[in-house]
Amino acid sequence: MLLKTDNNKKFDITNMIKKHLCPHDRYIRSVMSNTDIAGDFFKNYLPDNISKAIDFTSFEAQKDSFIDDKLKLQVADLLYSVKFHGEPGYLYLLLEHASTPDKLLPYRMLKYTIAIMDQHIKKTKGSKLPFVYPLILYTGEKSYTYSTDLFDLFEKEKEFARSVFLKPYHLIDLTKVPDETLRDLYWFGAAALTAKHIHTDILPIFQTVLELIRRVEKEANFDYLYPTLAYVVEAGEIKDRAQFEETIQSTLSETNEEKKIMTLAEIWMKEGFEKGKEKGIEKGIEKGIEKGKKEERFAIAKNLLTNGMDRKTVAVATGLTLDELEKIFS
């Protein structure tokens, strides 16, 4: 069939339809929209245990689509709501018309199934997952030769993947792990104790944390202290700040690492500056200055500048002049 356009060019509408619309999709979608036909299909091809669990009187076609734009010309997806053992669920029919079988089809089916579950949760605003049973109707020119088992895609790791994939997640609940056990974790112990006690008063356990950090930093090229202190100051419960500072000073003084001892003053200053954004910058900066020592101002200023704070703000925060700040990186 040929049509004439405004510029008198001939336009083959038949070729356009063949190119952009899949006749297989149109036909199957048309007939399978009839619930009697679709029901007959499922009753004959579902496994017995699945078919027996279904209440086919609740069988209903859904309009939702879960196929992305890149796949629209290759597949037609049909979704039906149905009750399994009296509970809401779905039968998902993927119509595969690709001329060449797709080895990754099991993975695609997994993604589509998850998408259906995700859409169901959004609609119901609940937390109960629906049961989704996917089927594939393949109508390619050649017989389908690839495995439909997702785990075959893991190849040599197939059996290992089968033993762990989609199994209950391994969850480590630190609230149930004794402190004595966490102390014995040579590298992770300090972080574990900090994370466990961050929501309560951290002070009773913090000397132990610092001792573990000191032990690790003697062997590792890693700054364990600064992120730990910053985390505790930002998110922790510190009921006695004076005692908190004293604990840090007494525990770390043995290392003779002045830079590490100085870190706390630096963190106090940063915290004061952040709070100052809400309650008045001047007041916040003033609070930060009170925590820093005069002899440490240059070191603090250097760190603040390195972390992106502008020079005017650093000058106000540390009491240094702009000329003095200029000399830091000269």
Question: Would you mind describing this structure in some detail?
Answer:
The protein has 330 residues and is α+β, with helices and mostly antiparallel strands. The protein is built from 16 helices and six strands. It has helices at 13-20, 23-32, 35-45, 48-53, 105-124, 158-164, 179-183, 189-197, 203-217, 225-235, 241-252, 258-279, 281-291, 297-306, 311-318, 322-328; strands at 2-4, 10-12, 54-62, 75-84, 87-96, 131-138. The strands form two sheets. Strands 3-4-5-6 form a four-stranded mixed beta sheet. A two-stranded antiparallel ribbon has the order 1-2. Strand 4 (75-84) and strand 5 (87-96) form a beta hairpin. The longest helix is centred in the last third of the chain and has 22 residues, at 258-279. It is elongated, with a radius of gyration of 33 Å.
Helical coverage, percent range: 40-55%
Residue share in β-strands: 5-15%
Spatial ordering of strands, largest sheet? 3-4-5-6
Which whole number gives the mean pLDDT? 77
Number of separate helices: 16
In short:
The strands form two sheets. The chain has a four-stranded mixed beta sheet with strand order 3-4-5-6. It has a two-stranded antiparallel sheet with strand order 1-2. It has 330 residues and is an alpha+beta fold.
Per-chain topology:
Blueprint: E1 2-4, E2 10-12, H1 13-20, H2 23-32, H3 35-45, H4 48-53, E3 54-62, E4 75-84, E5 87-96, H5 105-124, E6 131-138, H6 158-164, H7 179-183, H8 189-197, H9 203-217, H10 225-235, H11 241-252, H12 258-279, H13 281-291, H14 297-306, H15 311-318, H16 322-328
Parallel strand pairs: 5-6
Antiparallel strand pairs: 1-2, 3-4, 4-5
Helix pairs in contact: 8-9, 9-11, 10-12, 12-13, 14-15
